[in-house]
Structures are given as C-alpha cells and as structure tokens.
Amino acid sequence: MLFKLSSRQFDQTARAYGADLYRYAWWLCRDRFVAEDLVQETFARAWKNWDSLEDLAAVKSWLITILRHEHARLYERKQLDYTDEDPQDLDLPSAVQTGAHLELEQFVEALPPTYREPLLLQVLGGYSCSEIASMLDTTEGAITTRLTRARQAMRAGLDAHEATRGAL
Amino acid sequence: MNCLEFRREKLADPRRLPHEALAHMSECATCRGFAAEISGNEERLAAVLDVPAPEGLAERIILRRKTGARVFANASPRLWAMAATVVLTFAFGVQQWRDAGSQEYARLAIEHVMHEPESFTTERLADPQLFHTVMQSFGGEMQASLGKVRYMKLCPVPEGVGWHIVFETEWGELATLILIPAKRMTSQSEQATVGGWTALARPGGQGYYAVITSSPDTLGKVDELVRQRVRWRS
C-alpha cells in the first residue's frame, strides 16, 4: 500500500516536473541527449531515495539539487564552479564580446555558471533570491547581485542589438 | 524607496516586487517605464529558456522506475548515429580543433554539424539582412545571394565564437557554412568526408570558412557558388 502511494506520487512528480527539469538540464549542458540522460538519472536517484523525502511540497527543489549533483558528477566535479568572488571580477557577455547580434539565447549560453544558474532557477523555476541562495549554498546578497548584474548585461546587450538593427 | 532602490529590486526579481516598490512605481513614471522594459525582457527571456522537452519523457522516467532499465527516446537511427558521434567526439573535439592539422579543419567542421542536428530541422535567425551583416563583419562581401538562410547560430569554438549557418540553395538542397575567426589555414583548401558528410575548408575573411553538405556533388556546387558570390577580404 505504501509502495503504491509512493510510486503514484513519484509518477505524478515525473509528469509534473519532468519537462521543467529537462529545460534546466538543457541549459546546464546544452545537449538534448545529455539533458535527457541527466533527467532520467535524477529521477532514478530520486526514486531510490524517495522514502527520505520529508516534504513533498519541496520535491522540485530536491530534484534540482539532485540534478545539479548529477551534472557535476558527469563532468567529474564535486560542485559546479560556484564561487563567491566579487562579481565585478567576473566577465559577463556584452554587446562588444558577442558582436552586434547579441540575442538572448547566445547571451544565456555565454553567461558564466555563477550567473546562469540563479537566472535559470528564477525564470524557469520561479524561485526567490532567498530560495536560490539556499539551493546554491550561498548568500541571498550574492544571488541578488548576480541576478541584477545579469539582467543589466542583458538589457545593455538588447539595447545595443536594437541600435544595430535600427542602423541597418 | 527611491528610484535606485526600485531598480535594484526590479532587476533582482522582476516578478516579486515588495509593497514599497509597488508603491514607488505607482508614483514614478520613469520607474514605471523601466519596469515595463524589464518585464518585457523577462518575457522574452522566459520564451527563450522554454526549450521543448522531448515527447514521452515522463513516460520513459516512469517506465524506468518500473523496469529499472534506462529507456531511450525513440529517435531515428540517423539521429542516434549523430548522438553516438557526439559522445565520441565531444571530449576531444575542442582540443583537436585547437591542434588541427591537415584535413582537420574540414573534419572538425563536419563533427560540429553532427553535433547540432537540429540545425537542419529548425529555423533560427533566418534573417538575410543579419546574414549579410555577419558575412561582412567576418570579411565576406556578398556579390549575390547564396540561397535562403534557414539557421544561424553563434557557436563556441576555441578561438572564441564562430557562426554556424545553414542555407537552402537555389536548387533546393541544404548546405552548411561555418565561419571560424582567427584560425589561419596554411593550405589553400582541405576536404574531408565523415559519416556521410563531406566538407571543404578554405581560408577567408577573418580566419577560415567551411562548407559542409551531404554529398560530394553538392559540395562541389556549393563551393563554386560561395567562390563566385562571396569576395573575401583578409
């Protein structure tokens, strides 16, 4: 009976969040095959540890955490390159770096993981700065700064892109 | 709350503005304009991030729970051949591109194309004006059209970024053009055939370009077309 309940919950979770996890994975690795593999491994691992899930309401963030670990394991790293160095020291893509044809997809791809992950978690996952900080094991201030800088860079790039198109 | 604080709040989390920020926005026309712009960008970003998930993903996850075995998507053999090639080449591709010797430029261009099978099935930045601008900035002056541009993407390469372009020729066949900056070829041309694809790389513009097609006959025609219709500056 308990197994039936667990398996039903798991199946519902797979249907509810499988696509969201895939999108997150895709933007981490930018390869459809690797992304699906990551999602399948994530759910396989989640099923093995399903009984340890205490709060079903937190299942999505739990799955994202597993997926991040799977992704890191795939590239034989214990963690993603997630540092708390001064954001001013990190390079963000700009209109200058990517040419006048900056567009959003290229922008996101060019973002360093320290910026890309919080942005993905907020836009795709709908998480707040504080929730993202908790998931990425850093401070809310660091996340706020990164999201602010990422969007500033995106805005500048889009403005430059529009200006270039207008001049053509 | 002042305008600066409002902007910080809006940029950090555009969809969750605190009460003070909402109150400020209702009184400040400039910040309302700023908020509308950021919200617009956010919608565009959300649309870009919303990549389509493969069909039947949840069912495969559930099937794996039931059977304990990994279940793959039902893709075409050609796609799987491409995927296998990706696995084989991914780890070494970038380094080999960096150390490319004779015939490596053409071969690595093919491998890059095999890594992006969606370039033949999706339309992306299919904008002739943008294509002209990209060619011009790379050092290629278009004397006449090469065909209908269907796909353009700025791809990471060891030298920075290069353009991956797919176009449909006047006779209805698809051809890929890859523009790689900075890398200087020592030979006049290099040709390679891998996995049913054939490519020809030549120096041009800011580095070199490669034409990739699915048959040697088409390659010859597209190469001739590019040579006739593009004047390369170096």
Structure write-up:
The complex is a heterodimer of chains A (168) and B (234). Chain A is mainly α and 168 residues long. Chain A folds into two domains: 2-74, RNA polymerase sigma factor, region 2, helix turn helix motif (Rna Polymerase Sigma Factor, Chain: A, Orthogonal Bundle); 87-167, Winged helix-like DNA-binding domain superfamily/Winged helix DNA-binding domain (Arc Repressor Mutant, subunit A, Orthogonal Bundle). Chain A has eight helices and no strands. In chain A, helix 1 crosses helix 3, helix 6 crosses helix 8 (140-167) and helix 7 packs across helix 8. Chain A is elongated and about 60 Å long. The model of chain A is unreliable at 77-102 (pLDDT under 50). By secondary structure, chain B is of the alpha+beta class. Chain B has two domains: 3-49, no CATH class; 77-232, Protein Transport Mog1p, Chain A (3-Layer(aba) Sandwich), CATH 3.40.1000. Chain B contains eight helices and eight strands. Chain B has helices at 3-12, 19-27, 29-49, 57-67, 77-98, 104-115, 128-138, 216-229; strands at 140-142, 148-157, 160-168, 174-181, 190-194, 197-204, 207-213, 230-232. Chain B is extended. The relative contact order of chain B is 0.10. Mean pLDDT of chain B is 81; it is low at 74-100. Chains A and B meet through helix 1, helix 2, helix 5, helix 6 and helix 8 of A and helix 1, helix 3, helix 4, helix 5 and helix 7 of B.
